[in-house]
Structures are given as C-alpha cells and as structure tokens.
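Ops channel
N.P.: pipeline sanity check, posting one input/output pair.
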C-alpha cells in the first residue's frame, strides 16, 4: 500500500485522462441510449434496454468516429512535426532540426546508451521499425477505428433506412455516401483546427509550469522550448 501514492503521482497524467475517458464514455452511453429510444418511439417502435443499446451499431459508430479522428490527429502530428516547423512554438522543433536527425542526436545504433531500449541499439530493421513505432501504432489504430466506423456506420445507416422502409446499401456504396463522409470530415476539421490553433497560440500565449508552453518569460521567437 505504501507504493500506491507514488504510483498514482508518477502516472497521474495517464490515470487522470484514462478516468476522464471512462466517465465520458459512460455519459455518452447514457445520453445516447436516451436519444436512441426517443428516435425509436418517434418511429413507432419499442424502446430498448441500456445493455442492448451498448451492442447496437448506433453506439459503436458514434464511438469509433471520434476515435479515428483523434488518432488521425496524433498520427499526422507525430509524422508532420519531423519536418514541419513553426517559428516561436514549443510544439515545433528548433528551426535547424527539421528532419529525422542524426544517429548521435537520436542515440541509436553505436550511440545508444546502457539504458536505451534494446531495439534502439540494433543496427538493422529492428531499429528502423522502433524509430517509427509511435507513428506506426497511431496510424494503425486510426486505420482500424476508421474501418470500424465504416462497418458500424453502414449497419446503423441501413437500420435507419429499414425503419423508414427504404432499401439498404452495400458497404462500398456507404463508403461513397454523404453520411459516411459527413461523419468523417466533421471530426477531421475540428482536430486539424485544434492542432493549428495550439501551434500558433503557443507562440504568444503561456501556461506557467506546462510542458506544452514555453517559459513565461521566453521570447515569442524562441522555438522548441518547454516550460
């Protein structure tokens, strides 16, 4: 038990946001269930129970369409910031550091230390994969969640059409539909706006003590500094 406070402190960022995620997911499920039943009643159908709603495509598509846009944001940001710069932003690397940097700067291969991850010290394919593993995993989760959105989305779309006595559509047809791209693009635009806003606002604004901000007294032109 004596280790618990230290564990919580050392992992408080993940624990806090993980707990927030679970609470908001529960909140989404509760409100989504109520909204789903309101739609059923409007269509002259019987409402469903909460546990049954959790297994529906309506709930699944609402969840996955948000997940895919978040992981797209991280995927693009991780890879984009290797080469793309923003003068004066702590979200950017220093202006002379664009690119993948040298083995010495990245502490890989012969430049790896005793505490470096084992694959970082490798000189073959393991190092190449590990050197890009964060972006690869983020990209893979994005593609998986986008696929899940399309599959659950076509199911939810067809359920609604059947309730309205309209013909269902196939998965390829749904991928070209306005419903699929409306769900997708309304999430993408908000994520891209958030990243662009963070990059430029952090040039001029500060948050004392946050690693996402420059030190309060740093010059607006200082790039790649963290508070």
């Amino acid at each position: 038990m004596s280790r618990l406070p230290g564990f919580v402190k050392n992992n408080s960022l993940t624990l806090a946001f993980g707990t927030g995620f679970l609470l908001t997911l529960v909140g989404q499920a509760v409100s989504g269930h109520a909204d789903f039943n309101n739609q059923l009643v409007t269509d002259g159908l019987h409402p469903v129970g909460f546990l049954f709603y959790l297994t529906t495509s309506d709930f699944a598509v609402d969840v996955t369409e948000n997940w895919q846009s978040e992981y797209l944001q991280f995927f693009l940001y991780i890879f984009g910031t290797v080469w793309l710069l923003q003068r004066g932003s702590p979200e950017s690397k220093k202006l002379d550091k664009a690119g993948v940097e040298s083995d010495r700067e990245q502490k890989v291969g012969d430049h790896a230390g005793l505490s470096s991850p084992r694959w970082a010290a490798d000189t073959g394919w393991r190092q190449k994969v590990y050197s890009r593993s964060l972006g690869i995993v983020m990209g893979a989760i994005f593609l998986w969640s986008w696929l899940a959105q399309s599959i659950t989305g076509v199911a939810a779309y067809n359920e609604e059409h059947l309730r309205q006595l309209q013909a269902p559509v196939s998965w390829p047809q749904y991928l070209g539909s306005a419903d699929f791209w409306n769900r997708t693009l309304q999430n993408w635009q908000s994520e891209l706006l958030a990243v662009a806003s963070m990059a430029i606002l952090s040039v001029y604004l500060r948050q004392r003590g946050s690693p996402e901000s420059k030190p309060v007294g740093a010059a607006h032109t200082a790039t790649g500094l963290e508070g």
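N.P.: looks fine end to end. Residues 12-42 form the longest helix (31 residues).
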